[in-house]
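Design review, sub-item: ligand-bound model
Attendees: FS, YL, KQ
YL presented the inputs for the uridine-diphosphate-N-acetylglucosamine complex:
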Amino acid sequence: MDRIVITGKQPLRGSVKVSGAKNAALPILASVILGGGECTLTNVPRVVDVFTMGKLLGMLGATVQADGNRVVMKMDALRSPEAPYDLVRTMRASVVVLGPLLARWGEATVSLPGGCAIGSRPVNLHLAGFEKMGATVTVEHGYIKAKAPRLKGARICLDFPTVTGTENLMMAACLADGTTVIENAAKEPEIVDLAAFLVKRGARIAGAGSDLVTIEGVKALRGADHDVIPDRIEAGTYLAAGAITGGDVSVEDCRPQHLEAVTAKLREAGAEVVEGKESVRLRAPARLKSVDVRTYPYPGFATDMQAQMMALMCVAQGTSVITEAVFESRFIHVPELQRMGAEIKVDGSHAVVTGAARLAGAPVMASDLRASAGLIVAGLAAEGETDIARVYHLDRGYERIDEKLRGLGARIMRVKDGSSGVASGAGA
Ligand code: UD1
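KQ shared the predicted structure:
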């Protein structure tokens, strides 16, 4: 298993290109199940979650061929309607195959995701939506079994604007009889991107990106080409990395409008942020000011940026209150940051972070994808060496993060377990 070793205190400078959004690519790939000819995707990130989705789609009967960041996919026949536990437990987003399977092939068997480092993360809202559309849903032996010879349009009001729930229902509704209305829908840019792709394929969707999405069912979809949107969380992570090192970083190939909640907080904390058409440049003082952060569904501050922002607050001047309002236990990175000398007190969904003058490098353990990113950001500012174990979490969602950070001058290297971790010099 690989580790990442960082020697901190190196101000980051230069520019870095953002890859395609993992969270947009996953449902877009899953939508191949809806059938309707060959689709070509570009800007698909080469990350482990995308490979897992490719493997799952292959098991279901799709052909998915990748060449770098380009993917050509098609699904003409169903081989199996089952997403097995072994795959779903490694990637909870596998659940987005449920809606398309049900709509196109009338049945789906998807393992329940099970325990997850960031809370129980149920899928009850997805299932209640499918039932409203006429599906029979049972949970047996750890598997969700859903059946519907033909889904019917329905009015579905979500209790919470679930992202993958909105995507799952939207995809299913594309081939349902009649019109489906999703109220309190999630508004994330990844949903807008999925809808844009489905519309190119002949789906009739209005309102994606607002809290009311209307889908008129059609008989069949066709093939189409699509360029996946840039990853706003990856972009935000590089901005946080630049900010914590007092650096000067240009994040290229991103959509600044998708980053507004993050850039607003970075400005409030004292960084200078200049937005270009497809880039954001950040210049940071040696030490930022503390700011309070509350995570919220889009367009609020993304929960997927909370760990990185917390790392930043660990060395900012003053006290910051970070409130996690999307997931129930997403402070799993706190004990690791404390090992690096961070002063953090957690009380339920609040974390009070007292900015310290310094963090000290330490051996730490990554526990989930974004927690790993938070530890990387912290390691970049820490004195001495930070040795991060279990970086496979990071590889689920970041394309070549160590290489990209090295390009900005970070002293970061990937080592195999068992080898000593002496970080290489900038660009070495
Ligand atoms: C997606 C993202 C993930 C991000 C999250 C929140 C993908 C592949 N993943 O995850 O990176 O952190 O959005 O922005 O896009 N909930 C229920 N019942 C449900 C569904 C959700 O109670 O049926 C709750 C969850 O427990 C959580 C909240 O709703 O507290 C938000 O979850 P949701 O938006 O569904 O997150 P994901 O779609 O899993």
